[in-house]
Amino acid sequence: MAALLADGPKYAAILAGTRLSFAAPKDLTQLVVVERLAGTPTTDFGAPSVAPTADSDRSCDAAELKRFEKILRAGWRAFDQVVSSAHGKTLATGPRGGGRALEGIVAHVIGADAGYLTAVGWKAPKAAEP
After folding, report:
1. Residues in CB range of 108: below 8 A, 6 or more apart
2. Which of 8, 33, 96, 104 is deepest in the core (most CB within 10 A)?
3. 52 with 35: CB under 8 angstroms?
4. Beta-carbon contacts of residue 50 (< 8 Å; ≥ 6 apart)
5. Pick the residue with more confidence: 94 or 7?
6. In Å, what is the CA distance from 50 to each residue of 45, 46, 65, 75, 129?
7. pLDDT > 70 in the chain, percent
């Protein structure tokens, strides 16, 4: 919860150009836990691997779908900007001393995204070379 709170300003910055209303919470009392799930080695690294019950209803109206699309596009824009700014720089190693080159990170993110798409019933498009 503390990590989510600490990252609030990052989410606000990513969504700033979308005209979506988002105010980062100021303290933990503004976060509401609606379900607790057991973690996995994947969630230890901050990636989703267990779907909450609320996600079992995948329906949404056109307005909500448009909102989700804006959020997703904003996230990919931010990712593209970070990748662009990282070219030619030495990247820090991971928590276990390892890590990937920038191209490997990009390929990993695209591969993970394809996995999430197929998990919700979509066919992942063929990825272009990064």
Report:
1. 100
2. 8
3. yes
4. 37, 38, 40, 43
5. 7
6. 13, 12, 22, 21, 29
7. 96
Distance from C-alpha of 99 to C-alpha of 97, rounded to nearest angstrom: 7
Q: Which amino acid belongs to residue 72?
A: L
Half-sphere exposure of 18 (CA within 13 A, CB side): 23
Residue found under tokens 């804006």: 70
Closest C-alpha to 117, from 42, 37, 14, 48: 48
* Residues 6+ positions from 34 with CB-CB distance below 8 Å: 52, 54
Total residue length of the chain: 130
Residues 15 and 4: beta-carbon distance below 8 Å = no
